[in-house]
Design brief:
Number of helices: 0
Oligomer: single chain
Bound molecules: FE2/S2 (inorganic) cluster
Strand order of the largest sheet: 1-2-3
Structural class: mainly beta
Shape: elongated
Helix content: under 10%
Strand content: 15-25%
Order of helices and strands: EEE
């Protein structure tokens, strides 16, 4: 299972930690279907219906499957991630 998602952003979405509710965990969308990027809005639940070896093309609403093709480059599905802990700045080499 994989999906093609049309995204038009050309810059990052910065999150000011000071605006986050203290002690609450936020989920970042990694399925590409959220209507509230960069945050997960639960839209990923539809991906549970996706079949391995298929490539899904969704409408901009993130809910409507426009087309299903055989996936020319199938990959293993990503699994639920572990929480990302704050870390030091990445090193550029
Ligand atoms: S991971 Fe994309 S909506 Fe939840």
């Amino acid at each position: 299972m994989a999906r093609l998602v049309r995204l038009t952003a050309t810059a990052s979405h910065k999150i000011d930690p000071a605006t986050l509710p203290p002690g609450k965990m936020l989920s970042i969308c990694v399925c590409g279907l959220s209507q509230n990027m960069p945050f997960c809005d639960g839209a990923h639940k539809i991906t549970k219906l996706e079949e391995p070896g298929k490539l899904y093309i969704y409408a901009a609403d993130g809910k409507t499957v426009l087309e299903v093709r055989d996936d020319p480059t199938p990959t293993s599905p990503a699994t639920a991630s572990t929480p990302i802990a704050p870390s030091s700045s990445p090193t550029v080499s």
